[in-house]
Write a structure and sequence with these properties.
It is a single chain. With about 130 residues, the chain is α+β, with helices and mostly antiparallel strands. The protein has 2 domains: about 70 residues, no CATH class; about 60 residues, no CATH class. It has 3 helices and 8 strands; from the N terminus they run βαβββββββαα. The strands form 3 sheets. A 4-stranded antiparallel sheet has the order 1-2-3-6, with no helix packed on it. The protein has a two-stranded antiparallel ribbon with strand order 4-5. Strand 7 and strand 8 form a beta hairpin. Helix 2 runs antiparallel to helix 3. The radius of gyration is 18 Å and the shape is flat.
Length: about 130
């Protein structure tokens, strides 16, 4: 069990509950289950209900070279960039701009790492570049 930070705004904590359960073949951060108090069917916050779950599963390469499908770090960063750009258009603030710069920098670094691994012919393996 890995506990990630709750939302810093107390009244949102029950609706954006982030304690996660890591599941999968190992405890290597490949799959997160994110319970929250949000009734997705009614599209309405429901403090009485806590059985809603979202799942975030990352792509995983086993030691034998077999892939388990999932989201890549780069895709998740792109989602966060898109979401933050939306918020910045709606309610601009310096903190969103800083967040965007950091997320975009992280994405550039991840893409650069992939480029280096491809050049070294080790992308898709457990071999260091």
């Amino acid at each position: 069990m890995r506990n990630l930070k709750h939302h810093p705004v107390e009244e949102f904590t029950d609706y954006a509950r982030i304690p996660t359960t890591e599941v999968g073949v190992s405890a290597d951060s490949h799959h997160y289950v994110l319970p929250h108090k949000y009734d997705a069917d009614a599209n309405n916050p429901n403090p009485e209900k806590n059985n809603c779950v979202d799942s975030l599963r990352f792509i995983h390469l086993d030691k034998d070279g077999k892939y388990t499908p999932g989201v890549t770090d780069e895709q998740l960063l792109e989602v966060l960039i898109n979401r933050t750009e939306y918020f910045q258009r709606m309610v601009p603030c310096p903190e969103n701009e800083i967040t965007l710069n950091c997320l975009k920098a992280a994405l550039r670094v991840k893409l650069y790492r992939t480029e280096l691994r491809q050049k070294a012919n080790v992308e898709g393996t457990h071999i260091k570049h």
